């Protein structure tokens, strides 16, 4: 066998293949080719929606609704500049049956590797159930149900499973588990 050839586990390896690997690595280091060693390329997509919360079991103050929605967006890896503006509350910091929110954020979606500039992202598992994340409780069933129907479709998700059956005026158990494509550096609170 010559110096340019050797056997590998899956067949013949020759010096030319090694040179191609070296060239690809050099191009990546030079910045001519993106490298996603820890993830896949993604692109931010701007999103804007309204959530008119209608709950019989739990009512939120505008601050409370805004806080819950911001937490849910962080869990899903929404852009760090996400804006949630809650309105429709009668009194300052008191629960309201008419609380609603305007949401403006960006979501990461997988793209072809030749897209420039791309943001590295990966699929990660998220679960919404009482105490997962810790800020969610049994009384948040209706909010999670409405969030699933109105906001979640704006994200790149897959493998959605679980059940949400909210009975008005009762504390309900619920479980929603799925994978979301999110930036690798996305902060998720517990």
Mean pLDDT metric: 80
Largest sheet at a glance?
6 strands, antiparallel
Describe the strand arrangement of the main beta sheet, using strand numbers.
4-5-3-6-8-7
Strand content: 25-35%
Number of helices: 3
* Cα end-to-end separation: 57 Å
| Count of strand segments | 8
Structural class: alpha+beta
Shape call: globular
Uncertain stretches of 5 or more adjacent residues: 1-36, 186-190
Assembly state here?
single chain
Give the SSE string. EEHEHEEEHEE
Helix content: 10-25%
Cα-based radius of gyration, to the nearest Å: 23 Å
Polypeptide structure, described:
With 190 residues, the chain is α+β, with helices and mostly antiparallel strands. 21% of the residues lie in helices and 33% in strands. The protein has three helices and eight strands. It has a six-stranded antiparallel sheet. A hairpin with a 2-residue loop joins strand 1 and strand 2. The protein is globular, with a radius of gyration of 23 Å. 23% of the residues are buried.
Question: How are the secondary structure elements laid out?
Answer:
Layout: E1 5-8, E2 11-14, H1 15-30, E3 40-52, H2 62-75, E4 83-87, E5 100-110, E6 119-128, H3 141-150, E7 157-163, E8 175-183
Keywords for this entry:
alpha+beta, disordered N terminus, two-stranded antiparallel ribbon, 190 residues
Give a brief rundown of this model:
The chain is of the alpha+beta class and 190 residues long. The protein is built from 3 helices and 8 strands, in the order ββαβαβββαββ.
């Amino acid at each position: 066998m010559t110096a340019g050839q050797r056997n590998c586990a899956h067949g013949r390896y020759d010096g030319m293949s090694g040179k191609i690997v070296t060239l690809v690595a050099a191009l990546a280091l030079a910045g001519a080719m993106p490298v996603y060693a820890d993830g896949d390329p993604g692109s931010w997509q701007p999103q804007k929606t309204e959530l008119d919360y209608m709950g019989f079991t739990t009512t939120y103050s505008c601050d409370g609704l805004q806080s819950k929605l911001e937490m849910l967006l962080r869990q899903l890896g929404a852009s760090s500049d996400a804006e949630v503006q809650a309105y429709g509350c009668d009194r300052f910091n008191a629960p309201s049956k008419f609380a609603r929110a305007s949401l403006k954020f960006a979501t990461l979606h997988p793209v072809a590797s030749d897209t420039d500039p791309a943001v590295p992202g990966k699929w990660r598992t998220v679960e919404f159930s009482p105490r997962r994340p810790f800020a969610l409780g049994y009384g948040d069933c209706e909010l999670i149900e409405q969030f699933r129907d109105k906001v979640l479709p704006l994200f790149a998700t897959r493998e959605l499973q679980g059940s949400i059956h909210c009975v008005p005026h009762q504390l309900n158990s619920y479980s929603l588990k799925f994978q979301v494509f999110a930036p690798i550096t996305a902060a998720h609170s517990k």
